[in-house]
Amino acid sequence: MDQVRTTPADDNHPHSIYGASGAKAWRSCSAGPLAVQAAKADGRIPPRTESEHSKLGTRAHDKAEQWLMSGEKPDFEGDHDMEKYVGFYVDRCIRARSEDSFDIIEGQVPLWYRPQDTGTLDYACVSDDHLQFMDLKYGAGVQVKAEDNDQLAIYAISLLKQLEARGQEFADSYPVALGIFQPRWRECDPDDPDTMLDVWITSYRDLMDMAIDIEADYQKAQDPERNEFKPSDEACQFCDLKGICEARGGQAFEEFAVVTDDEIDGAQASELVTARSHDTLSQFQIDKILATAPAIKKMIADVEKAEFARLNAGGEQSQHKLILGKPGHKKWLDQDKAAAYLKRELGVAEAVKPSVPITPTQALKKLGKDMTPRKKSNFEKLFFNPEGKVTMVHVSDKRDAITIEPTIDSFEEDFGDLI
To answer: Is 142:97 a contact under the CB 8 Å cutoff?
Structure first.
């Protein structure tokens, strides 16, 4: 089989609001992408900063690409866990190769339903007999399943259609194996790569049938006349709008509203009237509150995060503000100097726990309040109080609001990817 040309992955191929990584969201909540785009454009959603987890995933992908491209293990700079896990992944990729196959490593392929956008193939191995695709996910908390995974399907369909455009033909039964390799997922055996791999075995025909539905959902999502909000756990999980989404808020509180609705008929209405007359909740009300509590708690948490992010990016203060919380516990600036000072003043037994100086607070208690000004000055040079954590409170709080300059940055146009 002839090799297909793909574009290497780089920063010049930004995520699309209709990209494969967000397909689960825009396929179910079709109004989401345009709403996110509008909210980012008017500053209601601040720029997203790369988390430490995301940086770790990017580094793992870079090391895997170097290893697969060169055939030699790169320098992992002492990160032995990453060296082991990436090694497991590389081994799986290499085992997919055959004499008549070619592979694609971190290559860009145009999305068939939106050719101006591309998707990144972590690793694909194509032969006359089958297509194997491997997606490296370095996240530990949430397992990503391969079966019926929209992102994997879109990548595979896009590659197959690109191959067809070059004259390649596929039988309906042509096997396609789509795998997710997630070595850090918390339920994996860290020494057994088989537990890190989840595979979806499908076929060319099944994927092409799925492509019809995906393209129909895309057409609906980009049409303001037809798209609609449909909040759900899956659609909202990685959506940037979830903390300020009116549709999600309405859904979260919809059932709760029933608790105080005077229009409830029958026995339920009678219960509510009785409950109000006795200033207590009826069992019906209690059951309703407890049933809706998880969705409401989740919505409230996301609203708090969204408002914190807006204020932390320099947004205008409304009914809440950011303050510096209570300073952290005193910490030694230099443990060796602190240990020497305390040993001199208190003696070894009192000054040092096994190999570690006692804390500044403990030292203050032992040294007492009667230290001379000189001793006190010398002692205070040895520690510092960490700044308090930035906290959001109501404007009625007596503490001073902190000032944060607005952040000016480019906006990412995607729903986020699990890495």
So the answer is: no
Q: Which of 258, 154, 120, 144 lies closest to 199, judged by CA? A: 144
Determine the angle formed by the axes of helices 283-312 and 266-277, rounding to 10 degrees.
80
**Bridge partners, 120 (sequence order):** 108
194 SS3 class: helix
Closest to 93 (Cα-Cα) out of 68, 70, 71: 68
Rg (CA), the chain: 29
Count of residues in the chain: 419
8 Å CB contact between 302 and 242 = yes
Let me know the angle formed at the C-alpha of 396 by 47 and 310, rounded to the nearest 5 degrees: 5
Q: How many CB atoms lie within 10 A of CB 293?
A: 11
Half-sphere exposure of 405 (CA within 13 A, CB side): 3
**Order of strands, sheet of 7-8, starting from the edge strand that comes earlier in the sequence:** 7-8, 102-111, 114-126, 131-136, 175-181, 197-203
Strand ranges inside 16-113, DSSP E: 102-111
- pLDDT digit string, tens, across residues 255-265: 665 555 444 44
Helix ranges (H only) for 147-199 are 150-165
Helices (H) and strands (E) in the chain, counts: 14, 12
In the numeric block, the tokens 């600036």 are attached to: 333
State yes or no: pLDDT of 11 exceeds 90: no
State residue 272's pLDDT score: 45
The answer to whether the CB of 48 falls within 8 A of the CB of 240 is: yes
Q: Are 32 and 25 in contact (CB under 8 A)?
A: yes
Cα–Cα distance, 379 to 337 (Å, whole number)? 10
Among 300, 280, 287, 384, CA closest to 337: 384
In the beta sheet, which residues pair with residue 118? 110
Distance, CA of 74 to chain centre: 27
Torsion of CA 273, 275, 278, 280, to 10 degrees: -150
What is the distance between the alpha carbons of residues 140 and 187, in angstroms, rounded to a whole number? 9
* Cα–Cα dist 364/380, whole Å: 10
Q: Express each pLDDT in 64-98 by its tens digit.
A: 999 999 999 999 999 999 999 999 999 999 999 98
Pair 181, 86: CB distance under 8 Å? no
Can you tell me the distance from the alpha carbon of 94 to that of 307, in angstroms, rounded to the nearest whole number? 47
